[in-house]
Specification:
This protein has 330 residues and is of the alpha+beta class. It contains twelve helices and eleven strands.
């Protein structure tokens, strides 16, 4: 018999409890959930390596953050992924590592009436365990560069979905020391994987406390839900009960970003998805993602991506064709 897939799933199955803030609209024009995005608190005396999985729909699918790293493998469905200030598309086979306190969510586009038994396979672990292990096994320090990159979220590209799924299954089906061995072997493989990209330009600093984290999550969710509309510093500061000057200092201290830079990055990230997914004109996409000036949109896009929107679309199309030909697309 396979061991339980994780304490969260056990609670959902056995006690019919949920860990999700009900969603809704605060007002017709501005989209917000009721309450702040959830910060998950896990048992510090629990498993060193925790395995979880869920299907679709599921109460576990929500905008949230926590102190642990999470390695996510998408087994089914397509949709939009939100990681920090990154907004993109996901497909079956995607493998992503998120760092501590980096808010994230995968929203499937499947019809509401559809049901999938297994959408997400997740491995969760904390930084303290790795640090303490390094003091005994110095070779584990080779994992640190990857974990540092995970503060922005890492997508591992070109992975073999069947091989990756089997890696997760071995962790799920094992316990105790055997699970640790499978887990470390997988991390070692990923730490040497050269085909990856970092997703979010926003990082949450480790000294951010729970109250700050809730405010950051509220702001991030607000921007992601309303990027296509005018967003002012004043209205966002009011959202978390701060003056404009206090909010500006707070946001930069917590994330390393000026607020307007964060808003622009969310908009450009969404524009990248539209450029890759649709044939709409650049000018149309510009206005859809919240810019009111094409020249400014082009300038901000090139600042962040190093190429123009048209060049980005061309490169994305070429890469997709190459992935389809080689069978390495995720």
């Amino acid at each position: 018999m396979s061991p339980p897939v994780g304490k969260w799933q056990d609670k959902l199955d056995n006690n019919n409890q949920t860990h999700v803030v009900p969603s809704g609209r605060a007002e017709p024009m501005r989209k917000m959930t009721e309450g702040t995005p959830e910060i998950e608190i896990t048992d510090p005396n629990g498993e060193t390596v925790r395995y979880l999985e869920h299907g679709f729909p599921s109460e576990l699918i929500r905008w949230h953050a926590h102190d642990e790293y999470e390695l996510h493998f998408i087994a089914a469905t397509t949709g939009n992924v939100f990681i920090g200030d990154y907004v993109g598309l996901f497909h079956p086979g995607q493998l992503v590592l998120t760092g501590p306190r980096l808010p994230h969510n995968w929203i499937s586009k499947n019809h509401p009436d559809s049901h999938v038994d297994l959408r997400d396979m997740v491995v969760q672990f904390n930084h303290e365990t790795i640090e303490e292990s390094i003091s005994v096994i110095p070779e584990m320090s080779l994992l640190l560069p990857m974990l540092e990159r995970a503060k922005s979220g890492i997508e591992f590209r070109g992975v073999d979905p069947a091989h990756t799924k089997r890696r997760f299954e071995k962790i799920r089906e094992s316990t105790g020391f055997s699970r640790i061995v499978h887990f470390l072997s997988f991390l070692d493989e990923l730490s040497q994987w050269s085909n990856y990209r970092q997703l979010s330009t926003m990082q949450i600093y480790s000294n951010t406390n729970d109250a700050m984290q809730r405010k950051i999550n509220t702001v991030v969710e607000y921007v992601i839900n309303n990027f296509e509309m005018p967003i002012t510093l004043g209205e966002t500061a009011d959202l978390v009960g701060m003056t404009e000057s206090h909010f500006s200092r707070f946001f930069r201290k917590a994330t390393g970003n000026r607020f307007i830079e964060f808003v622009n990055r969310v908009r450009i990230s969404k524009a990248c998805g539209l450029l890759a997914e649709t044939n709409e004109k650049v000018a149309s996409i510009c206005f859809q993602v919240g810019f009111n000036n094409v020249a400014n949109f082009n300038r901000r896009f090139q600042e962040l991506k190093g190429i123009t929107p048209r060049e980005y679309r061309m490169q994305t199309t070429q890469r997709l064709q190459a992935d389809l030909e080689t069978g390495t697309g995720t």
